[in-house]
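Structure ticket #2291
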Amino acid sequence: MSTPDQPAPPGTQPPAPPSAEPPVRFGDVVKRLGPTGPMAVLALAMPPIFSIALFAAFPTIAPWLREHQGTGVAVYVAAFAILAGLAVLPTYAQAALGGFAFGFAVGLPAALGGFAGGALIGYLIARSASGDRAMTLINEHARWRAVRDALVGDRDPDGSGPRKPSFFRTVGMVALLRMPPNSPFALTNLVMAAVKVPVSAFILGTMVGMLPRTAAAVFIGASVKQLTKDDLAKAGPEWMWYVGIVLTVVVFLAVCAIAKKAVERVTGPHI
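Resolution: structure written out below.
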């Protein structure tokens, strides 16, 4: 056993505490993020508000899409991408519209195409608006940086230094965050862009993670006779909502576990 006058044996020293970091003040963080903060608020608020107009327009939009299958699919995908990318409309309702207008076989790839385009548009807008603000702020805090690196996968597991980003790890994390049915599409685009997730991994992870919930929405849309909010709510089997809740909890716990492990690599498990 070592004494106060003797150094502890190699390998037994606790991890060095992180270097001094600036205090975290909510107001300062919001100010330094610039337009990213207001954009996040709009990304959460706009889709529910504009969903009223979307459901009101369904009786006009859906028949036209059905009557113009070739042109209708192209118009649907383009409109889906633009409106989802700008955080104007809820993606669930747009996916259900694809199922109602084109059926499951055509509606699913069309909706996924709209998601891909919307994710890219949202990503590019958010990346331009956020610039380096979020990463500069994250890099000032060792714990924040460790969590970001763990989720994006661009730092060695032992924290020894930067390396080439792990593409498939990043794809998996993006997919995991996209899977819960209540995962906010526009807000996730904003966050992923702000922390500079590579765009290729971001798009692929989005497609993988969105596939189950998109398939469910398109299937429900294809199964209803009238495309109304009440009909869509009634058409969804009850077990689907329970699965969504369980999936949300599982993803939350998984992300927390990854973040906790990342922080412990910086501070030590005793912190």
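Closing remark: Residues 11-18, 155-163 have pLDDT under 50 and may be disordered.
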